Amino acid sequence: MKRTFILFSILFTFSLQGQQLLDLYLPVIPQKLLNKVEDRQLVEKNLEFYSDIHPELIGYYILHLKTRYEARITDTEKNYLELLKVKRDEYINAKNRWANYQISNLEGKNGSRFLSDHAFSEFNIMIQTNSLRPGDIFEIPFDKNYIDFIEGIFLSENYKPYDREVSYYNLNRDIFVDMVVELESLQLKQAGMTKSQKSDALKRMRENWYLVGKKAFNKQKMNTSFEAADICFEIYKSVNEMKPGFYISLSYDGILSGSSAVEEGLLYTINFERLDEKQYTPFLPVDFYFVPQFSLSAGYRFRLRSFLSTFSFIETGIKVTYLEQKLNDPDERQTYFGNYEEYSPGEFGRNYFIKDGSSSTNDFLFSLNAVTPLFYFTKWFSIEGGVLAGYHTSSLTFQFKKEVLDYYKSIDDAEILHTETVKIENEVSKFSVAPFGRLSFDTSLGLYIDLNISGYYGKYIPSIDLKYGFWAL
């Protein structure tokens, strides 16, 4: 005679293993199914499968086995096989809805979109994707108290002979009450739990999914005031928790040096107010240009929200940069030729040479910035924006030698009448407030790589920062 068993390939973790379940239910399993090893193994696997979906299904499974192999009824409706399938599908549908409900709760939490896939897989693995049919109505009578009796064996992990006078529904309800109290105590104690203990508590909640949550799925209408998603989020939230604290940064950026180049020579005019008093004015304009420079900065990140999200923090930073440079080496001994301008009718200009022209700058920059995240592409990559305020002082020095020639002779034959050293100093200071933007990469090792750009002095100045932190207070 052909044997009919219900076996699914998807098996889950639960409290009692197959052999333990088989030993527990030996008194109610038809002897015919215990004689062969392969039959025993098949019953073990089915007990595992049904207990994982909902312990009530074990009652329908045992009812089917007793009707099929003890009463020898082969009709699938009359031996309750079809009823078992319908109940199985009803509970699988309910379990799927519960798992999806927990996933929805998890997704609704602030910052949850950066949780690892492992967080959502805690519930995704519970979902069965096989085609489920709507429940049918069966009018074949059966002893519902006996179903509760079989379920109670699983809940109490203890076998006692069936007594028709006992309400096993009420006995099971008492067990469910204790289970709900235990589950709620796990939730209350989670603040003092280790991550491993929280994982064990979540596993227990998933095993007893039909008791967990405000929309629990059990006929006793027992439920808890929390969702499994709550403790799941506590386990995995550290991966995207916004951490405030101090940081230090090494920057490779630019300082706008306020100096004029001397590639075209040190040109100037000399105006005679009196013959012994001269005033020199450089022709070349003072300008600011980009000079790459390493610098150190430090700052603090203030938390506005608990988890990574738009405007979840404000980060402030202070940077001091000093740059000293020579723009022309006096040893090159560059020589330029010029002449005095005519001052009055009848007075002619005097020829001269300019030699050893040099130029140097001393730049000091003090800047403050404040930025906040605008958008997270991933938890490791974000775009941030803010403002930069800076005070920049640039000291400029021009120095050269002027050899004045005898203007009565030609340039080639002229004698040097005297040599003068001319030194022109100037200082330029500017204060500026400009927009500031950056792309920030989190290496997850406490090291951040920031690519910055600012509109400093009307120019776009790029920089790169290697930032290490943060240390929460």
What this model shows, in words?
The strands form two sheets. This protein has an eight-stranded antiparallel barrel. α2 (37-53) runs antiparallel to α3 and α3 (56-69) packs antiparallel against α4 (81-107). With 473 residues, the chain is an alpha+beta fold. Mean pLDDT is 76; it is low at 1-14, 258-288 and 329-349. The chain is built from nine helices and eleven strands. It has helices at residues 18-25, 37-53, 56-69, 81-107, 117-124, 144-156, 168-189, 195-207, 228-236, and strands spanning 245-258, 268-274, 277-282, 288-303, 313-326, 335-339, 351-378, 381-405, 416-442, 447-456, 459-471.
Distance between the termini: 75 Å
Name the strands of the widest sheet in spatial order: 1-4-5-7-8-9-10-11
- Poorly predicted regions are 1-14, 258-288, 329-349
Helix content: 25-40%
In percent terms, what proportion of residues is strand? 25-35%
> How many H/I helices?
9
Helix-strand makeup class: alpha+beta
Topology, number of strands:
11
H and E string = HHHHHHHHHEEEEEEEEEEE
The averaged pLDDT comes out at 76
Overall body shape:
rod-shaped
Q: Major beta sheet, specifics?
A: 8 strands, antiparallel, barrel
What's the Cα radius of gyration? 43 Å
